[in-house]
Design brief:
This protein is mainly α. It has a domain of about 70 residues. It has three helices and no strands. This is U25-Liphistoxin-Lm1i_1. InterPro entries: CAP_dom (IPR014044), CAP_sf (IPR035940). It holds the Pfam family CAP. Keywords: Signal.
Length: about 110
Amino acid sequence: MNCVLSILILSTVCSVAYSGGCIYAKFTPEHTLCKPPNTQCNLLANTVSNDDKNLIIKLHNDFRSKVASGQETTGGQPKAADMKQLEWDSNLANVAQKHAETMRLWNIELQGM
């Protein structure tokens, strides 16, 4: 039994070491959380305050409620029978933040300007 446990621990340590310490590499080595930040990206802020989180969720839920009640007139959205309210998800926010930190900028030539 100790041998099996030792092999399991060694296997885990080796896989984490091989992936550069990123536990999400087991899903894909290209996982957003495994990518380094883009050093050419000058982020002005990398956090969202609790007040901002509450405002983001409130505004999003207000729009969802408008659709759910049939008050949304653009896009022909049907009423919703049981639309749930959204809540802040810190894990999803962390992935989104990491995605923003790895952003790539392209030079886009504006035509006609």
